[in-house]
Amino acid sequence: MRAASTRDFAYPTNHVVGTVADAVKAQAAIDALLRAGFDRRDIDILHSEEDLHRLDPTGAAHGYLAQFHRTLIRTFELQEHQHLTHHIEDIRAGRYVIMVLTKRRIQKIAAADILHHHGAEFVGFYGRWAWQELLPSDTQSPEDIPALFVRAWNERDSVALASLFDPDAEFVSDTGLCWHDRESIRKAYAAMLDDAGGNGTLSNGPTKIKLLSPEVAVVYAHITQSGGKAMIFSFVVHRSGDHRWRCASAHNTDIVPADATTS
Length: 263
Prior knowledge:
The protein is an alpha+beta fold. Helix content is 25%, strand content 31%. The protein has 2 domains: 15-133, no CATH class; 144-261, Nuclear Transport Factor 2, Chain: A (Roll). The chain has helices at residues 23-35, 85-92, 105-117, 144-154, 158-162, 182-194, 196-199, and strands at 15-20, 43-47, 69-72, 96-101, 121-126, 131-133, 165-172, 178-179, 202-213, 216-225, 230-239, 245-254.
C-alpha cells in the first residue's frame, strides 16, 4: 500500500474510522472527541486532494485542521485492503474521513458513538486481524438524560423516570430532601406525579455537558415548570454495563431572580 501524503499512511490498526459529510460536522465530531478525553495526536483527518492547494509551502494546514495531524491521500493499492476502498472514495469526493486511535474497548465504543452521533457513515474498527463494522448502539448520549427525565415527568411515568438512575443512585431535591436509591426516587416522584394539576409539565432549556472521561459526564440542564418556575438540574452520569448512560447522582435547585436575593 503506497500513499503520497504528509506522512506514510499505514493500515490503521486499532483505529475507529468513519466518514463525515462536511467540515461543520467534522469539526463538531472532533470537538466531541476531544471533550471525551481523546488525545488530539490520536485523531487523523483525511480529506480531498484539492486541499493540497490550501497548504503553506512549509506544509502547515489552515483553519481548525491545523490542530490535528493531517493526512492527504492520493493513491492506494487496495487489493488486500478492501474495506478501505469506501473511505478512499469518500476522500476523493471531498468528504472527511476521521480516524481515531482507540487503545481500550471503552474508547472504541465511545469513539463510534460520537461519530454516529455526528452523522458519520461506514463506521468500523480496524483491528489487528480483521475489520469490524460498528453499528449505532441503542445508547443514549449524556445530553439525552434531561430530555428523558422531562418526557417521563410529562407522561407521569415514575418507572421510566427512575430507570434513568442507578439502583443505588443519590438524588437531592430543591427542598433538600435526599433519596438514596432508585426505588426511593421512584416512590417520591410517583407521589409528586399523582398530583398532575399541581405539578404541571416541564420543558427543556439549554443543556451543558462536561465530559470527565469517555464514560463519565456531568450534565447541567435548565428546566422550566409550567407556571414559570425555573430550575437547574445537575446529573452525574456514566456508561453502565449495558453501555447505556445512567445517572449516579442528581441535584436540582430553583433559579431565584437576582433582585429576590437582595431583599
